[in-house]
Structure formats: C-alpha cells, structure tokens
C-alpha cells in the first residue's frame, strides 16, 4: 500500500511579535500510511511562509498650543494632544499633562476695583499677619489630629490581633488570619486578651475572603461567617495568633467514597458581608469541586490517561495488558496535604501522583509523566523518586542520576518521565546541592471587584511552575469571580535564603488609591522555599475615587532580594464585558482525558514494528537500539533497556511520553535517517561488497 498525504494543518501563528517572521504548516504521510513496503509520499511535509506582525507605536505629544486669553480668574491656559503620533497597535499613551494653566497678570489682579499695588502697605501687613497666624494654627491642629488618628488606628489594629508596627503587617497577604466570630447580640469585638470561645462554630463552603482590617463595620457584623455547607473552620483568638500557636485555619472537607483513592475535594467560596447577590450569581454555573483524577478501561492495545491541564499523564504501551483482558486504570493527583515528611531544605518539586490499581502488574513498562518546578542541573540538584508503601510510609525508589534496572527516570526541563513496572503513589523530591539551585515559580495576577463597588482586589500568586499548581489557582479564582489580568511570568527563585518582595507600583494618583501599609509586602525565604501545599498569594485592595473610573493601569513587581525580578504590566478594564480574555493553558487537553488503542500513539503501529525489528537485532557495526537511544538523547542508564525483551519498543514508548503534545515525528524520522547515512558510510569503507539495508525507510514509512 503506497502512502498518501493527510490534509495540511492550519498555518501556525507568526513567530515574531513585531516585524518580519514566519509561519508554517505540516502534513503527514498517514492517509493511508505506507504498508508492506509501499512507497512513501512524494513532496514536502512542512511548508513555511513569511509574515509581518504590526509593531506597537507609542504615542507622543504635539507641541503646546498658544496661551489662551486671560480669564476673569486671572489665568490663561494652553493644551496639547497625544497625536504626534497617536498610540497604535497597543502602544503606550503619552505620559504627562495635556493641559497647563498659570497666572497671567504677574500678581496684579484687581481687588475692590483698585490695582493690588495701590493697596496701603499697612493693610497688606495686617493681612499677612493674619495669614501667618492662621497657617500656624492650622498646622498645630493638623498635627494633633494626625497623632490622635495614628493612636486610634493602632488601637483598632491591636483589637483585631494585628500590630501594624510589627513586620507581620507587611506579610499579612500571605498569612491566614484567624478571627473569632462574635456572639449574637454583642456589637463589640472580643478583646484579644480574653480566652477564645471555641464552642462558636459556623460552616461555609470555601476559603475566607478577608477584608481590610480597618473595616470595623464588616468585622463586627454578625453575618461575617455566613453559614454554608461542607467545610468547617476552627476559629482561634487573635491572642493565639500573636503567640504563633496557630499558623492557619483548619479546614475539614467531606471525603468522597468511591472505588479509587481520592484526595479531599476542595470546596470554594468567599465571605460576602455586603451585596452577595452578584457573587452568588457567578457561582451558579460552576462546579464547587475540582476533580483532579481520571479513569478508563484499557485492553491489550494500550492507550493514554491524562489529568486535564495538569501535565500529569500515564502511557500504557501496546501489549502491557494481557490479551483478552480489560483493566480499569485510574490516575489521580493528591489534593490534600501530603504525608511526605521533608528533611532540611528538601523540596517537593511536583504533585503527588497515584496510578492504579496497585495490585496489578504489567508485562511492559508503563510511562508516568510528572511535571516539576526545578531548573534542571545535576550540579545544583539531587532529585529522588519516592513511592508510598501500603503502610503509608515513603521509601526511595531511585535517584534520577542513578544506574538501576528497576525503573528509569528521564528528566526534561519541565517534566520527569518515569518507566515503571508497578502502579502506586509517587513523588519527586529535590535536594539542593548549592545555594544557586533554582526553584521555578509562576507569577500570576488576578483581579475582581469586591463587595464595595468602589474597591478592586488584586491577588498576586506565586506558585510552582507546574500546570497542576496553576490549575488549582484557576479553579479558585473562577469561583471567586477573579480574572487573569496578565500573562503569567516565570521567576527563578534561588535557594540563597533571601526573601521575596511583592509591590504594586505606578497607580494613577487621582483615579485610584491603595490601602495603607499594603503597597509592598514581603515573604520570608523559608515560607517560599519549603512551601509544598497551597500556592502563596498576596492581596492588594485598591479603591477608585469615583464609579466613573473603569480603567486600571499599574505595575506589579515581584522580586527576590539580590535575585531575579519580574514586572507585570496591568492594563485592564474592571468591567467584565470590556476585559480582554487571556488564555489559561497553552494546551487544553480537557477534551481527551483518555485515549484507547492506536489513536493514543503518534507512531503508527506498522512503522513501530519495523523500527523494533531493525534495531532490536544485535549488529556488529553498532546499528542497534543503543544508537536509537543516543539519537533520542537517552545516554544514561542504558542497562535498564538491555534487560527489556524489546529495548527499541521501550525507547519508543519513552519518546511517545515526551512528545504527547507536539508529536514531533519529523525529528524522529531525521534521527533514523541519520543513523542510515552514518552506517552507509561505514559499510562503504569496511564491507563494500555487502549490500547495506536501506535506512531511508524512516522517511518513507509514515514518519
């Protein structure tokens, strides 16, 4: 059967954001794929064309106009416009004022129909004395009011268990504050020195949306903890918080029964003390739980399981399950707090992943892919794979750099691909060897209107650079009505003990203002580096002066002291119908959580068989599976593949796991073709009379 080309894919986006670039499209020889020695398709598999992207043009002011005629108020004006040139294609608007005014009489304004310089000098002196004493009196009164205000403010803060002079006020956005509920009928806050009343408990369905501690009205309302369902919160006194007795509120979720192991399904929500109707309306169309697990029934042909938008997947190769058998296999991410006890500065680099059932064994290694947040460097990190036993204890399986035949780990820049012979619960642990070890953090900014229509909340998240960590934040924000305001950026956080600082800059002064003591916040190093649970986030509360203000422009700066810095430029509308939508995930695989049979694999089965038959057979000239591994950047722990019945098949399974999104068959075909050319040269020199098999079939058999 001769091969036939498939349809061309859509043209890719222009690779240049500004100026000249290129686009490409591709097709594959799979319609049909060549079989039984049939000819490969003729023609190009990839086409490229040039493209041009419009560059942003920043605006610039034109020259000032002439001064206007002097007005009755003794002022004249001049104006200018941002039209030289105007901003285009997303360019910045001009900075500065568009209008200026100044006195136009040099102080000779008319007073009582007489020129000012004709007024008697004694009257001027009298007026000057009055103005001087009035100014001094006003200054004294202002200072007294300021002192009283600061004193009252500090007292009010101490009643909430937060001392604004303490450095903890700067990190409040990253800590879970605990407030006692007020007994019904008591209009005053409980004093911090009183013993906590732990008998008062309310239930609600999500994390607490803490308002600004200055808002006494909110804190004293009896409806602060609105009764909803499923999750209980143990409320502890501010006195206990100040002593460091408790670090966070305790959440207890209802466990879901089922065939497969489940993490605690997270419930989401927020406290709305005022005007809850809008928020409840937003919740009506969204599920209250996040299901980070998937399952399907597989047979002898194998397939692939994917936990959508998390980077976690499981490849079941062809032949791993016995013929005429069907297994229900599941894949899940642990959502509750991990039971893994970390030592010293060790870091949990990715999610804790469970695949099963654990009592089944496969005849061919399965490929488990777990995302990680380490910047890969064997001189800076020592990365271990650990497995949880049936007794709940964790034992080390192997080090990624270790030579072993029990399993195999291949560390890519953003994921680890693990070949396993048994199901179970696995986790990646990173041990930093140097202070230069980098933990990659993703920084994202979300925003939403608060209960008060004039307030706008900015929430800055610092999470591990893994899709599953970002997925958790997205689910949280969707239920809180939050919107992603800017494309997330990558921050390289080093293990050098320096803290993380987050600040909001360049807020328009006459349109917005930020609550006191919240413009800059700092998180201790240990809190960032050793955080292996929920993503850290910091809340900033902005207030607009008038409801007519619908645009927000500012900068969010996230930096490690003496380290890497990222600045996110926020330019958005606070009105939902005017806001530009930003894509959450580059590859949305939520539509295909499970694929069974041949469609789950990128390499056609007939081509795979020919490759295995060629490379599994030992060859005196070295043209075997070892060179196939080398051409696919597999150079370590080759003894693992030597113990397999078909080393080439396991290498191709690893290739399938690494290329589940791009399916880069061209690179595999080039590697095979290069092997053919290399050994054709060897054959010409050493055995010119022996015909060398044609390795160019790699280009002619569907690749």
Automatic annotation (TrEMBL):
The keyword Disulfide bond applies. CDD domains: Death_UNC5D. Residues 292-432 form the ZU5 domain. GO terms for molecular function: netrin receptor activity. The keyword Transferase does not apply. PROSITE patterns: TSP1, ZU5. It is found in: Cell membrane; Membrane. InterPro entries: DEATH-like_dom_sf (IPR011029), Death_dom (IPR000488), TSP1_rpt (IPR000884), TSP1_rpt_sf (IPR036383), UNC5A-D (IPR037936), UNC5D_Death (IPR042058), UPA (IPR033772), ZU5_dom (IPR000906). This is Netrin receptor UNC5.
């Amino acid at each position: 059967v001769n091969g036939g080309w498939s349809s061309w894919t859509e043209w890719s986006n222009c690779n240049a954001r500004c100026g000249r670039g290129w686009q490409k499209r591709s097709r594959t020889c799979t319609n049909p794929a060549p079989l039984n020695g049939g000819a490969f398709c003729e023609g190009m598999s990839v086409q490229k064309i040039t493209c041009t992207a419009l560059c942003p043009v920043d605006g610039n002011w034109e020259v000032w106009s002439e001064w206007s005629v002097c007005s009755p108020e003794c002022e004249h004006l001049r104006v200018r416009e941002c039209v030289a040139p105007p901003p285009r294609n997303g360019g910045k608007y001009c900075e500065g004022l568009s209008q200026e005014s100044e006195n136009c009489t040099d102080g000779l304004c008319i007073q009582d129909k007489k020129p000012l310089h004709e007024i008697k000098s004694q009257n001027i002196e009298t007026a000057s004395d009055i103005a001087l004493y009035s100014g001094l009196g006003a200054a004294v009164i202002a200072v007294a009011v300021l002192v009283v205000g600061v004193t009252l403010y500090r007292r009010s803060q101490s009643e909430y268990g937060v001392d604004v002079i303490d450095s903890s006020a700067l990190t409040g956005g990253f800590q879970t504050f605990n407030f006692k509920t007020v007994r019904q009928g008591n209009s005053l806050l409980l004093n911090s020195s009183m013993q906590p009343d732990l008998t008062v408990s309310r239930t609600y369905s999500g994390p607490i949306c803490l308002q600004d501690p200055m808002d006494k009205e909110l804190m004293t309302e009896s409806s602060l903890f609105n009764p909803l369902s499923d999750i209980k919160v143990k409320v502890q006194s501010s006195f206990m918080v100040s002593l460091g007795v408790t670090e966070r509120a305790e959440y207890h979720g209802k466990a879901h029964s089922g065939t497969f192991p489940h993490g605690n399904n997270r419930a989401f929500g927020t406290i709305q003390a005022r005007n809850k109707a809008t928020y409840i309306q937003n919740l009506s169309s969204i599920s209250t739980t996040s299901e980070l697990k998937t399952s399907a029934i597989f047979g002898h042909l194998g397939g692939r399981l994917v936990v959508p938008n998390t980077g976690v997947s499981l490849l079941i190769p062809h032949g791993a399950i016995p013929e005429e058998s069907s297994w229900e296999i599941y894949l899940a991410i642990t959502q509750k707090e991990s039971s893994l006890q970390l030592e010293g500065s060790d870091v949990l680099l990715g999610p804790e992943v469970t695949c099963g059932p654990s009592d089944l064994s496969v005849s061919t290694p399965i490929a488990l892919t777990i995302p990680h947040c380490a910047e890969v460097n064997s001189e800076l990190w020592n990365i271990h794979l650990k497995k949880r036993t049936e007794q709940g204890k964790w034992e080390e399986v192997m080090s990624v750099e270790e030579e072993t035949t029990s399993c195999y780990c291949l560390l890519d820049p953003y994921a680890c691909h693990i070949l396993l012979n048994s199901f179970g619960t696995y986790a990646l642990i990173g041990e930093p060897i140097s202070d230069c070890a980098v933990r990659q953090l993703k920084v994202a900014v979300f925003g939403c209107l608060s209960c008060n229509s004039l307030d706008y909340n900015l929430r800055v998240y610092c999470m591990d650079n893994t899709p599953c960590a970002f997925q958790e934040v997205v689910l949280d924000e969707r239920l809180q009505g939050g919107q992603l305001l800017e494309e997330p950026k990558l921050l390289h956080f080093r293990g050098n003990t320096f803290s993380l600082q987050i600040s909001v800059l360049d807020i328009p002064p006459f349109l917005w203002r930020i609550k006191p003591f919240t413009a800059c916040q700092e998180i201790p190093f240990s809190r960032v580096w050793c955080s292996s649970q929920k993503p850290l986030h910091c809340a900033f509360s902005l207030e607009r002066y008038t409801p007519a203000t619908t645009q927000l422009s500012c900068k969010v700066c996230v930096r490690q002291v003496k380290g890497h810095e990222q600045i996110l430029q926020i330019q958005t509308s606070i009105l939902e119908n005017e806001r530009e939508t930003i894509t959450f995930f580059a590859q949305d695989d939520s539509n295909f959580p499970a694929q069974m049979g041949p469609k789950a694999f990128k390499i056609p089965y007939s081509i795979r068989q020919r490759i295995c038959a060629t490379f599994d057979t030992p060859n005196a000239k070295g043209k075997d599976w070892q060179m196939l591994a080398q051409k696919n950047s597999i150079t370590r722990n080759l003894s693992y593949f030597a113990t397999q019945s078909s080393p080439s098949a396991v290498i191709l399974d690893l290739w399938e796991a690494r290329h589940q999104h791009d399916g880069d068959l061209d690179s595999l075909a080039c590697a095979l073709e290069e092997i053919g050319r290399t050994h054709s040269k060897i054959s010409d020199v050493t055995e010119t009379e022996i015909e060398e098999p044609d390795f160019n079939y790699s280009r002619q058999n569907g690749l």
